[in-house]
């Protein structure tokens, strides 16, 4: 059930990354207005998680996930029927707010599962997200290449969503741990936890880089480099596929090198891979750069979420909500920065912010205290 929830979420965003070029073209949006629209959606997501994310610990994981998965479905329908900019903005508010809350719920359940099993496997679940993203990107590119209207591709995403909601209704959820005496502090206290905030900033940079790749890589390949739909979709799929492979290998990497060294290496490789992708217009080299970026980023967010859950025993949902709320600042800043820079300097220059994010992950990870060697 949990793996399917992550895989579906990735499947949608893989579709979204490829279809965004078609949607923006249909609405006649340049990078600036498109970036602002994504900014509005991300802002709604941050507000929703700040206000409602903690309810995952209060109303129960099942109810929480069913509610927000259904609202997310309404947002997907809205993308299929968007015909004007104002309507598009409203749709993104619904889609991003519900998606952020769905994300909080999934990761809170994952922390519950880790506690119950006594081992770390967050990276495997996030590999399911990335694998779903690769499948989504490839299927969207293939359907577009075959002449299917992008609106019907969006509606097709609702089919696996129905299966996920049915699984939520019938699955057995793990018992979430209750806080012990002395841990029932207010939510604001979590934001004063220096270790938790360091993890949150690293997660923010990781999600900023992931979000920019998810939202803009397809546009870059299909509009800036003018690749056909199938090739453009394949490039996005390579990024997601690399993240899936990296996350499957991340558990062993973390055990061998520790959280800190893994994050340090991720930051350096992200900067290197993005530099490779942007210094050339040769499609194979660009895609190779995307592959390196995907491998590098694969462990950043899973490590951050696992560390966050461990820093607040019994309050995993609230801690992950706090980290995710701040981390989605990457989605808030990323689209508007990329859209604004692209409007003036071009999308290639704007995407260099991903390399900068990698460098910052490297610097900040030097201060992480790993629970394992490293």
What does this structure look like?
- It is a single chain.
- By secondary structure, the chain is mostly helical.
- The protein has one domain (2-174, 187-365): Up-down Bundle (Growth Hormone, Chain: A), CATH 1.20.1250.
- It is 81% helix and 0% strand.
- It contains 16 helices and no strands.
- α4 (85-117) runs antiparallel to α13 (316-327), α9 (194-224) packs antiparallel against α11 and α9 (194-224) packs across α13.
- The longest helix has 50 residues, at 229-278.
- The two termini are 33 Å apart.
- 56% of the residues are buried.
Whole-number total of structural domains: 1
CATH architecture: Up-down Bundle
The gross shape turns out to be globular
The Cα radius of gyration reads 19 Å
How many strands in all? 0
Structural class, by secondary structure, is: mainly alpha
First-to-last CA distance: 33 Å
- Helicity level, as a percent range? over 70%
CATH topology: Growth Hormone, Chain: A
Give the count of helical stretches: 16
CATH class division: Mainly Alpha
Order of helices and strands: HHHHHHHHHHHHHHHH
The major β-sheet equals: none
Overall pLDDT metric? 85
Question: Could you list the spans in which at least 5 consecutive residues all have pLDDT below 50?
Answer: 180-185
Strand residue content: under 5%
The CATH superfamily name is MFS general substrate transporter like domains
